[in-house]
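pinned: reference chain
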Amino acid sequence: MAKDEKNLPKEKEKEKKAGGNKFVRAITALPRRMWNAITNSYAELRKVTWPSRKDLINYTAIVLVFMIIMACVVGVLDLGATELISLIIG
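pinned: its structure tokens
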């Protein structure tokens, strides 16, 4: 029997005692992983090209006008569907 084969069970026992459990290792690594995610997000936000105030107001106005138009379209379709159903029913 080789020297490595005799030490194999002892090494596995040491791993179990030293936190060889995957769950324990995952939990202990969680704060580090969370901190890495926060720092990576911050680094990515520093790379963003933010719009100017004028552009932001312009884009906001465009979105609001589009939402009003779409609300009118959906309202007309809803009114038409309601009238159609009331004609079918009676």
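why pinned: The first helix runs from residue 3 to 17. The helical segments are 3-17, 22-47, 53-89.
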